[in-house]
Sequence to fold (163 residues):
Amino acid sequence: MQSGKLEFTCENFLIDEMVNEVINTMQMTTPRQRILKEGQTRVYVYGDKERTSQIVINLLSNAIKYSPQADHILVRMIDGDNTIAIAVQDYGIGIARENQPKIFERFYRVDGTRQETYPGLGLGLHIAAEIARRQNGRISVESEEGKGSIFYLELPVVHNFTL
Fold:
């Protein structure tokens, strides 16, 4: 990625279709938690559908991993003026305020005893943020320790779908 060799195959695609596909696939990996979806945007985005689905898979995987006691994860589709946001909300361990700006950095891992419980390389969110950035989008987080997190993927809208 750093050498700029991460290739993108861009096209217009319905964001709701892609999110539904990812939710259906990810639901098969977690029998304990239901992945619920709220909202429908019916908008197209221009980008790499596979890379964008990679972002949503990463956000859902993290939500599943970091909220093992929760019975559900919520995915909300938020239609803005010229953007679409996909919000992935978990009800898990949350992220301390001082760590939130760092979690998108390469190899960043939160120190402490919970790191042993939730292993990883610290690359997933960095890669997801970079994929979003290269599609003129962004990822952000709202979180409170002990109450969970909401990750937002925002992408520019190409146009609305009408019947």
Observations:
- The beta strands are 10-14, 34-38, 43-48, 72-79, 83-89, 138-144, 148-160.
- The chain has one domain: 10-160.
- The mean pLDDT is 85.
